[in-house]
Amino acid sequence: MTQIVVIAVLLVAIAFAAMFVAAYRQIRSMRWKQAPVFTPIDAHRVPGNEKSLVEEKARELEALGFEPRFWLVINPPMSHPDSTLHGLVLFHPDTGSYGEVTIHPQPEPGHEFNVEFLHFPVNGDILYTTNRIRHVLGVTPQGYQWEDPYLDTLDELWDYHRNRVSGQAANAREVSASEFCRHGHAFFDGLATELCHRGDLTMGNREAGYRFSHLGAWRLIRRMQKAGSKLAKATTHNDPQTPMFPDPRVSVIAHANNEADMARKPAPASHKLGLLLVSLVLFMISFGMRLDLTALIVLVAVLFFHEMGHIAAMRLCGFQRLQVLFIPFLGAIARGEKEGASPLQGTFIALAGPVPGILLGAALWLTYPEWSPEWMSTLIFMLLFINFFNLLPIYPLDGGQVANLLIFQRWPGLQAAFGGTSMLAFFGLAWWLSEPLLAGIGILLAFGLVHQYREAQVLAHIRRGARDGQKTGEAPSLHDIYQGFEATRTILPFHGRFQLARGLSKRLKEPTPTLRDSVIGLALYLLFLLGTPVAAAYHGIVDWPFNDYETVDWEARLAETEDDATRAQVLYSAARDAYYMDRFQKAREYLDESRELLARLGLSESLSMARNLHLSAEIAHYYDEELAGDDTEALEQLRKDAINDLQQAVELYQLNESTVEAIDGHAEALDQLASIAETDDAPEQALAYLKEAEALWRQLAAEDNGYSLVYNLNHQARVYSELENHTAAIGRLRESMSVARSMDEFSRPYLLRTSANQLIDLHLDLGEYNRALALADELRDQPDMEPDLSERRAWAHFKLSDHTSARADLEAAITTLESNEGEDYRYYYDKEKADYLAQLLMVHREESHGGLTREPPTRDTERLLAELDAIDLSPEDYKAHLQRQCECGDKSGYRYQRSLLMRDAVHEYLP
After folding, report:
1. Which helix (H) or strand (E) holds 151?
2. Dihedrals φ, ψ of 435, to 5°?
3. pLDDT higher than 70, residue 34
4. How far apart are CA 898 and CA 319, in angstroms?
């Protein structure tokens, strides 16, 4: 759960960072044009819809004593040339003030129009009063006294301005339309000058104009954020006289201007490449904490190949503005733009990512040799798993996009339900695979569900209207969409309505899939979705429920192989297969023949020969009894063969140590030589082998995630303990725990638990009970440490005569065992709970013999009998089991002492 919360926080932070970067790039891409902002225009040339709306608002000013004078075309300096507004200028004779009315660029309920007042004095600064806009620029040019009171109503704003000009009517002067425009140009020129002095704007060439600097873009974003509270206070949703939604006609005009402002030139290739590289670096950092370098490079290559499949399909279908980006913690995405793409084109693009990856992975699986490098296996696995996973019908995976295009696009409600199902599917996969990143995707989808629900509501309303004959013969318009917001009570700020309307408008223009489109597209999709696992099972790529493991006829393959070099490699692969199938004698026969062929080919010093000798020694060492039975001479010969083969393998690995595989094999062979030396009662020799192997494992720490290094250090600690050098043993185990702590979240719990248990056991063997308890307390917050810690704490408390704590520790261990996420705690060792209950009897017996209690342990005895019945073990058999524990193993450690006491307690209390 903690991991899921952390991942969710990180993904939300990334989402906010992405929004900030998008806003930052949008501001940096804008240009402050040195061109006329205001131009007089005849009234009859103003678009009729906009003219009637502005005149309707202007009548409120006329009621306050204003008189209409002239119309203007307004193109703000940072707007696109196609983004224009038309404003009506009015004059108030009593105060000598001018009012300007335009449609607000981002209309909200009660603030659909932008109304400004100006007072031109004969002498002195121009008095300028606006409402809710000054935060955008934050500076005042020379020659102006600019105030912005952030008020609710037009009457309040006019009263505020009239108070400013009170007593200055005699000092006022009238201006013509052209002079009004000149003052407007001067105002924006003055703004640019002030912003340049502050460092917010930088000057390019005259054609390009000014642009915001990095600092200026940051300051503008911060001003917009800080102004949010002011704008919220000025919102009048709670006023019953104010409509809940702006006039749809006003919203359509504002939408068109905002759409024009977003029509920037396509980013140059250098910018796209830079963005790709930055996203790649962030992605590699996010996954570098969980994967070694080789796996990380393979993952990046697989994802890039996948996304380039999408890009190639988009290019074939005529898409523009293509871009690939990596997403930290998640994966990668390919995007492009095209209006009116057909459903079959969308299906082709969606399948063009995973299908080539699956085909390439299958081809490599069927052709690559058994002895190929380890990264090849990783590549094949990732190609098959990642691409097949993307075919699953879960949105936003590629398979989910196909289902969305061909099935759910017809029914918006079902599409929203599909989004909810996909969210639940990601949560289910996260739980099943123990992968918190999938839960993070589910959380992101949860945020998107609200958007999908709103979109579905508005679409359903628009389509109902079309069915009812309200828009016969006409495609739904932007006006219908904004009307739909009001009808469905979709309350959002203008930016949210604008983004939702853009998506709806695009969707309404896309062709709905025909029955033919759906049949063809789904048939193609299901071919790969269902065909991939069937083909994989048929060719042995994955284990299928009815797929027997032993599918390779090695004798037939050897009969078909004529080339000696290939035959030697096939023999080695056959030997490995026989080894895994517990056919040890057959495996040795294959290896002997392979070794003869390699010698004949002059490859006696090759890496292939080293692998051959190593596998032969492994079989002889670990499975000697299976090969020789009770024959003492044969067992001794196998031991000598194992040592001889390992020593030869070590020499050959050293000759070929330029490869990772050779270093890995060299270290493994040294570890096995150490095990044999330890068995032969030669701990000093074992320690020498282990230290030599340690140096090699440190070189490979990034390749195998440190697993082998931890095991090597733990082995060294065990040998030091045999030599009674307990200080060195403790040091090795502390180092092992340090290595385990540095690993990824999947490897860390198991290896840290292994090292910590061994160190605590050593402290308990030495009678250092307080040190054992201190270490257990240090590790208490680490995951997956129970019930091991409680079991060891119980023995330490027991030896310190703290019987109450010992009993509590054992009860905690039993509780953890029974509630281990629903897993069967008897799977690996069916007597674990019985042993804990026997230890409770041991504690009671100690208390009884010490005179601390006279009551019999009736409850604990009944619990133990119930557990023995559950595991189908009689009390006599369990007593025999405890007796065997006392007779076998090391008789110097704490476990032996505990076994004796458990045996005596069970014999005393169990019938």
Report:
1. none
2. -120, 100
3. yes
4. 74
| CB neighbour list of residue 428: distance below 8 Å, 6 or more residues apart | none
Q: Which residue has the tokens 């952030």?
A: 150
User: Which among 367, 290, 387, 278 has a CA at the least distance from the CA of 329?
Assistant: 290
CA dist 215 and 203 (Å) reads: 14
Long-range interactions of 738-744: CB distance < 8 A, separation 24+: 739/701, 739/706, 739/709, 739/710, 739/713, 740/706, 740/710, 742/706, 743/705, 743/706, 744/289, 744/290, 744/291, 744/705
Q: What are 98's strand-pairing partners?
A: 91, 118
pTM for this model (two decimals): 0.57
DSSP 647-674: HHHHHHHHHTTTSHHHHHHHHHHHHHHH
Look up residue 707 and give its DSSP letter: H
pLDDT of residue 731 exceeding 90, the answer is: yes
Place of tokens 């790969």: 528
Query: Which pLDDT score, from 0 to 100, does residue 25 have?
Result: 72
In degrees rounded to 5, what are phi and psi of residue 636? -65, -40
Which residue bears the tokens 């993307």? Answer: 390
Kindly tell me the burial class for residue 746, based on how many C-beta atoms sit within 10 Å of its own C-beta (0-12, 13-18, 19 or more). exposed
Distance separating alpha carbons of residues 495 and 255, to the nearest angstrom: 10
pLDDT winner (highest mean) among 6-10, 227-231, 784-788: 784-788
Q: What is the pLDDT of residues 124-180, one digit of tens each?
A: 889 999 988 876 777 888 889 999 888 888 999 999 999 998 877 667 889 999 999
78 with 208: CB under 8 angstroms? no
Q: Give CA separation, 240 vs 110, 231, 243, in Å.
A: 11, 19, 8
Q: Which residue has the tokens 């303990």?
A: 721
**Integer CA distances (angstroms), 860 to 558, 845, 863, 881, in order:** 63, 12, 5, 19
Contact 247, 49 (CB under 8 A): no
Query: Is there a contact between 79 and 26 (Cβ–Cβ < 8 Å)?
Result: no
Spatial strand order of the sheet with 144-147 comes to: 38-41, 67-74, 85-92, 97-108, 111-119, 126-129, 144-147
Q: Please, what's the b/e burial string for 36-49 (b: 16 or more CB within 10 A of its CB; e: otherwise)?
A: ebbeebeeeebeee
Measured distance CA(105)–CA(258) in Å, rounded: 7
Q: What whole-number distance in Å separates Cα of residue 287 and Cα of residue 435?
A: 13
| Residue indicated by tokens 């790039």 | 25
Give CA–CA dist 82/103, Å, rounded. 16
| Cβ atoms within 10 Å, residue 62 | 14
Detail the DSSP E strand segments found in 120-183.
126-129, 144-147
3-class SS at 103?
strand
For residue 244, which phi and psi values (nearest 5 degrees)? -75, -20
CB 716 within 8 A of CB 690: yes
Torsion of CA 391, 393, 394, 400, to 10 degrees: 80
Query: Is the omega angle on the peptide bond into residue 369 within 30 degrees of 0, that is, cis?
Result: no
How far apart CA 477 and CA 483 sit, in angstroms, is 10
